[in-house]
Task: inverse folding
């Protein structure tokens, strides 16, 4: 069963301003509880010495001390923990935990599936400019803070995955969708050649497991709202 993708409004700069001390502290409590709540005393002692768990908690403590801005250029010793933390945050933002969702607003009530988003990736690849395709990669595969468009993804795992677009990037995506794709109900590329390539790629790839239109519809609504409000977008699944 494919996971739903939650699309939230963010401050104009994207992810980092969301990670307030209160939200980080709530995440830390939730993360520890998720990993230890049902353990026996012996298993709890083992968890307390788990290197990955300790590294994530240590990095959260570092952010609580120095602020979420430290995510932008983490020290080398935190590089691995940062990627693990972003994956865990994606899980956190889809659990509807009170500490996670306080002051966090869904950009749209539409929740496309992960398979739908992957199918939309093919449509964007064939129908839109490279700049928009690169931004879509951040949605499909995740994005670390301050990762410039086209420089790569930055996350090791594609599920769960946390990505974001800034307000400026939202406007770029909105303009390109309007110019290069048709609208509802199918959101296919304007050019006939691109539509043919989309159909061919879907027959040859795993993207055929999803339908691109629900994802493109949800994201079109989300970017329209975010552009009106001067906001960025956060994608969690």
Result:
């Amino acid at each position: 069963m494919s996971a739903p993708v939650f699309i939230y409004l963010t401050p104009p700069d994207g992810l980092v301003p969301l990670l307030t001390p209160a939200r980080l502290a709530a995440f830390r409590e939730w993360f520890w509880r998720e990993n230890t709540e049902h353990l026996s005393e012996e298993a709890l002692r083992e968890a307390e010495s788990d290197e990955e768990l300790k590294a994530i908690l240590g990095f959260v403590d570092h952010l609580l001390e120095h602020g979420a801005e430290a995510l932008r250029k983490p020290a080398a010793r935190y590089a691995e923990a940062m990627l693990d933390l972003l994956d865990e945050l994606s899980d956190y933002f889809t659990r509807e935990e009170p500490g996670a969702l306080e002051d966090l607003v869904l950009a749209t009530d539409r929740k496309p599936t992960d398979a739908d988003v992957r199918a939309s990736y093919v449509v964007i690849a064939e129908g839109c400019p490279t700049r928009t395709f690169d931004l879509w990669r951040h949605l499909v595969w995740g994005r670390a803070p301050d990762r410039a468009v086209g420089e790569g993804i930055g996350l090791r795992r594609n599920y769960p995955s946390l990505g974001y677009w800034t307000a400026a990037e939202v406007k770029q995506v909105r303009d390109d969708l309007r110019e290069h794709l048709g609208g509802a109900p199918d959101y296919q590329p304007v050019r006939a050649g691109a539509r043919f390539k989309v159909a061919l790629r879907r027959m040859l790839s795993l993207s055929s497991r999803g339908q691109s239109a629900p994802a493109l519809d949800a994201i079109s609504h989300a970017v329209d709202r975010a552009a009106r409000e001067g906001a960025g977008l956060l994608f969690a699944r």
Observations:
- Residues 116 and 210 are 4 Å apart (CA to CA).
- The radius of gyration is 19 Å.
- Residues 212-229 form the longest helix (18 residues).
- The mean pLDDT is 86.
